[in-house]
Structure formats: C-alpha cells, structure tokens
Amino acid sequence: MTTPLFDTIALIGIGLIGSSIAREIRHKHLARRVVVSTRSEETLRRAAELRLGDAYTTSAAEAVHEADLVIVSVPVGASGAVAAAIAGALKPGAIVTDVGSTKASVIAQMQPHLPAHVHFIPGHPIAGTEYSGPDAGFIGLFRSRWCILTPLPDTDEAAKAQLRRFWEALGSNVDEMDPGHHDKVLAIVSHLPHIIAYNIVGTADDLETVTESDVIKYSASGFRDFTRLAASDPTMWRDICLHNKEAILEMLARFSEDLAYLQRAIRWSDGDKLFDLFTRTRAIRRSIVEAGQDTAAPDFGRHANDPVE
Ligand SMILES: NC(=O)C1=CN([C@@H]2O[C@H](COP(=O)(O)OP(=O)(O)OC[C@H]3O[C@@H](n4cnc5c(N)ncnc54)[C@H](O)[C@@H]3O)[C@@H](O)[C@H]2O)C=CC1
Ligand SMILES: O=C(O)C(=O)Cc1ccc(O)cc1
Q1: Residue 165 and residue 21 share a domain
Q2: What is the pLDDT of residue 270?
Q3: FRET partner for 168 with CA separation of 20 to 30 A, picked from 23, 30, 249, 290?
Q4: What is the atom index within ligand 2 of the atom nearest the CA of 193?
C-alpha cells in the first residue's frame, strides 16, 4: 500500500466532482481519513450510504478543523459562503483548494475570508459530465484530463507541489495559469458551448412548426450532442454565467459577429466562404483527435453506485 499524500482531507460539497475525488482518494489510499461535508442532510446521508468518507457533517467548519487538505466542490456562487464558514476552523498550514469552473470570481469570493496561515491554491479539473450529485461520480473521471491551478502570487512552492502530486495521483496533467487567462480560455472552450447548447435546445422547444415529438423522434446526432450539454446542472451553469460574466459576454459578442458572417454567406449563396470556414474548422477537430483529447470521459462506472470498498 502506498503512503497517503495527506493525513486528513475534507471534502466540502459531494456532488459529481466531490464524490469522484472521494472515490479516487479511497481507491488510491491518498488520505488516512476523509471527512465529507455538504449542506443538505439528504445528500450527506447518500454520501454515507455510498461510503464516500470516514466521517460526515453538515457543518463545513467541523469538517475542516483537522484537515491538511480542504477541497471545496460547490457551485461557484457558493464559494464565498463556504470560505466564510470554514475560515475560523482551518488548521495552520492546511492547503485549501477548489474545483470551480470560474477562477477570478472564486478567488475574489474566498480569499478575503481565508487566514494567512493557510495555503489557498485555486484549481479547476477540466473533466466532467452532464450528471450531478453524489451518485454521478466515478473513478477515472480525471484520468488524462487537465487540471488547471491558478495560484496567487507568492504561493508556497511546497504546498503547490503537494497539490500537484494529488491531482497527478488522480491521473490528471497539471497546468498553471493566471486566473484571468483561465476565465477567457474556459469562456470559449466550455462556457460558450454550454450556452449555445442551452439556447439551441430552447429554440427547438419554442418552435411552433416543429413539435416536441418531432424533435425527440428525428433528432440527428448533432442535436443530440447539444441536448447532452443542455442537460447539465442548472444551478452550476447559472452560477458560471453570473461569475464569468465579462469573459462570456466578450466571447458571445465575437460569436454573434461570426454567426452574422455565416448567415450572410448562406443568404448570398457564397459557397466559397462556407467551404473555407468548414475546411478550417475541420482541421481543428483533427488536431484535437491527434492530441488524444477527443474521447469523452470513460463511461465505465459512471453509474456505479456501489459503496466504495
Ligand atoms: N459538473 C462538471 O462537469 C464540472 C463541475 N466543476 C465545478 O465543480 C463544482 C461542483 O460541481 P458538481 O460536483 O458538478 O456539482 P453537483 O451539483 O454535483 O454538487 C454540488 C455539491 O455542492 C453542495 N452545495 C451546494 N451549495 C452548497 C453550499 N452553499 N454549501 C455547501 N455545500 C453546497 C451540494 O449539496 C452538492 O453536494 C462547481 O463549482 C462546478 O463549476 C468543475 C469541472 C467539471
Ligand atoms: O460534460 C461536458 O462535456 C463538460 O464540458 C464538463 C465540464 C463542465 C464544466 C467544467 O468546468 C469542466 C468540464
């Protein structure tokens, strides 16, 4: 058996991401003890049934007081409230991290509450699915996926190296980025695709001439891919939109301009313009496939609700 990387890990929030991390910790023996905390009694009970931790509490402060690593996995809009709740109970030298999809806002919400005697290192695993809750997590979610850390200036190198080792133990490749840059990159590669998916599925649902049963019956695989994204958790995506507002609006403005260009090419039957664009975008897809980044997260175990061994 390998030596655990941490003595005690506290998981605040035990949905898709928190429970996937919990399963990995147990599976790979990365901590001696795991304390699970979440707001609702019902989710906590389910986490206990799934044996995701060693101790369970609805008090985030109680969960963190002995923790060497605290991982906050809640919707980004709740980050500030969690930081305020745990601040007074954190152990000196503890590493506090998060997994939120936006970084500048999470830092702005959490940092003012956290004491100087802890190492706050924000993070974001670029891995997930459209499912949520403790049953949705699975071992392998983070394998061969990127995890981006957005450390603050003067972050302790040893603490950062320890957090890197943790994500690497989960199979991730770890990168570092400035929070503002992270938010712009993620706005185009993750947030916009979800917004477009919510929009197109909403548009199809609003059409008078095409019925819902037409949509369900004849949906081609392209539309079905959009419905998968548009089935993602409404709270999580509301929070992402509200907490990465500037970058998302900037990318949406660019997107709308480019869409108008495409619309014009179709209106004027400009086949060359259409062909050129479609050729350029196909090359991007091929680069992604060549880089081995085309596969969805492995499906095995996605609904494996068996208690963790
Ligand atoms: N779902 C995905 O594909 C990915 C999500 N993320 C980020 O990870 C975070 C968690 O997302 P999921 O695990 O998917 O969500 P989820 O909805 O599956 O789980 C959220 C958890 O947070 C708890 N929670 C909500 N508000 C809380 C509060 N105020 N205090 C304490 N606990 C609270 C819920 O009870 C639940 O346990 C979000 O910030 C999201 O942006 C990051 C990468 C991928
Ligand atoms: O399900 C998908 O395709 C995703 O894109 C999952 C995802 C959602 C949010 C993130 O911040 C990172 C990954």
Answers
A1: yes
A2: 98
A3: 290
A4: 5
Q: What is the pTM of this model?
A: 0.94
Pair 21, 36 in one domain: yes
Q: In what order do the strands lie in the sheet with 173-176?
A: 123-125, 146-149, 173-176
Q: Which residues line ligand 1 (CB under 6 A)?
A: 12-18, 38-40, 43, 73-76, 78, 81-82, 99-101, 125, 128-129, 132-133, 233, 236, 240
- Shared domain for 29 and 106, answered yes or no, is yes
140: which residues sit within 8 A by CB, 6+ positions away?
171, 297, 298, 300, 301
Ligand 2 contact via 126 beta carbon (within 6 Å): yes
Residue 295: per-residue pLDDT: 60
* Residue nearest (by alpha carbon) to ligand 2 atom 1: 129
Beta carbon of 129 within 6 Å of any ligand 2 atom: yes
210 with 136, same domain: the answer is no
CATH number, domain of 168, equals 3.40.50.720
The interface pTM score, or ipTM, of the predicted complex is 0.98
In the reported structure, the alpha carbon of residue 128 is separated from the centroid of ligand 2 by a whole-number distance in angstroms of 5
pLDDT of the residue at 121: 98
Tell me, what's the pLDDT at 308?
54
* Mean pLDDT, the chain cut into blocks of 10 residues (309 residues total): 88 98 98 98 98 98 98 98 98 98 98 98 98 98 98 97 98 98 98 98 90 84 93 98 98 98 98 96 91 59 48
Cα 137 to ligand 2 centre (Å): 13
Q: Which pLDDT does position 309 carry in this prediction?
A: 47
The minimum-distance atom of ligand 1 relative to the CA of 127 is 44
